[in-house]
Design brief:
Helix content is 62%, strand content 0%. The chain is mainly alpha-helical and 86 residues long. The protein has one domain (3-84). Helix 2 crosses helix 3. The longest helix is centred in the middle third of the chain and has 18 residues, at 40-57. It starts with 7 loop residues before the first helix and ends in a 10-residue tail after the last helix.
Length: 86
């Protein structure tokens, strides 16, 4: 599906990258303080723990999220899981 095929409310969520950029910035802060990782598994574990902590701090819901959920369920039907609502 192309970007402009989505309804305007979903397009706004897609092109708003501040959340993604903030998440990446916080991950970079965690990895920047470490010099060297002994192996790839150590890095993955650190990033997993950091992402869990970052997720706990996110409390602001997205604007019009209920409308977005409705639009996504219409567009993607069976592939869209309603239990993702928060």
């Amino acid at each position: 599906m192309r970007f402009y095929d989505y309804p305007p409310v979903i397009r706004k969520v897609i092109y708003t990258t501040n959340t993604v950029e903030g998440f990446h910035r916080q991950l970079r802060q965690v990895t920047k303080t470490k010099g060297v990782f002994p192996n790839e598994a150590a890095l993955v574990k650190l990033l997993y723990i950091a992402s869990e902590r970052i997720g706990e701090k996110w409390t602001m819901p997205l604007a019009n999220w209920a409308l977005n959920l409705q639009q996504l369920s219409i567009l993607f039907g069976g592939r869209f899981k309603r239990h993702l609502q928060t």
